[in-house]
Amino acid sequence: MTRYQFLERNLIQIYGGFPQDDAEISFDLLNSWLPDAIGTAAKNCYKEAIQIDGIGYANNSFYTTFSGIAITTDDTDNLCYKLTLPEIPVGIGRNEGIATLRFKDSNGFVSLTAIFLSMAQQAYADSMRPIPNKILAWPEGNTIRMKTPLQLFNYTGVVKMISGGDAADLNSTLNVPPDYFPGMVEYLKQQLAFQRTQPQDVTNDGSDKA
Amino acid sequence: MPAQMSVDEVYQLCQFILNKSQMGNLQPNQFNLIINQAQYSYLNYLLGDFQRYQPGRPISVVEWGQNAHIRERLTPFVQPPTTLTINPITGQTSYPTNYEMWDAMYWGIYKERVKFIQQDRLSSHLNSQVSPVERNPVFLSIYRGFQVYPISIGTTELSYIRSPQNIMWGSTNDIYGRPVYNPATSQNPEWRREDMLQIIVRALSQVGVNLQAPAVEQYSQTIKTQGQ
Hints:
The structure holds two protein chains of two kinds. By secondary structure, chain A is of the alpha+beta class. In chain A, 31% of the residues lie in helices and 20% in strands. In chain A, strands 3-7-1-2-6-5-4 form a seven-stranded mixed beta sheet, with no helix packed on it. In chain A, helix 2 (27-53) crosses helix 4 (181-197). The two termini of chain A are 39 Å apart. By secondary structure, chain B is of the alpha+beta class. A four-stranded antiparallel beta sheet of chain B has the order 1-8-3-4, with no helix packed on it. The two termini of chain B are 25 Å apart. Classes of the chains: A alpha+beta, B alpha+beta.
């Protein structure tokens, strides 16, 4: 199912039919709530995995691969590089929102994945001798910082992370397993039904009263 | 094609009712005056009379777009989507010909909506990062036209309700100076027959005759059977 189809279905449900031209809830507004719903679904998947298997993980269907991400030097540290992710990873575990980070050179060769560290581990690893031919990485918000003696200028990043897909393209496939759609639908309904029930101030009289 | 009344039939019916009510004679110029006032009164009723707004809910009991039945009554005046060219510097465009009330505005090849907003919400829409105006255009009503954002939108299509043509009972004088119906200088109503009965009720109320629409219909049938 594409993002557009999912959002359209929600809009029809919220409005009790096809929305009219004067509908306040636009596709863009609904799409802005979708990452929250996807994050909630991924977190629920992670918690269910712990309950069932005793190990935390998110189903493969939540993951998306982003490639061609530019790498620049990071002036905040020595031998440090950084890249910008398309979105902030989901906050499950320490950094389980990102599965792998690999590097592609101009010939199309893709490296092994970087070794991800938590913030506590990063501080510890910083005092260790650099591991030859290995890249240590840690996410900070939508930035991944990488520490390595290697020259990463000529590489681009290839990231596998939990993401609903391309948020800017409504015709892209929604990367969420369908068994988590009901939870997402309920989340969106809660937020937008709340919006619709709010009394509207329809008079422009200098008073913020509905 | 829905049934319609000719202007002569309407005039004869009004004369018949007035005579029956002993309210005197209705001159052609008087008829032309009251029938047009009546048709605009009926138009206002179908669009949504302010006086009939419900407390706390600005929706009339009868209002344009409520259902297909009301929409059908106004279809003689609903114009097909008309292309409006938006001024690329000001974002403004003038009303189209005989504009009365907008129905819907679209843009682009997929006919995406251009949402109507009032001036006090313009700032929120123009500065929205969640629903940027470039992908969610809006329009406002201004003096003699519309203001559209984004101003670079180019063209839009407007579906609107136009004003009805003035009903006119045209005449020439006979040798005795009496007005005789002249179809060449007359303008028939554009409304359906059942709407004309409502308009006739309104017209006659202006000359003091208090009738309900079924009574007017009964008179109309009497004219048909007894002739004019």
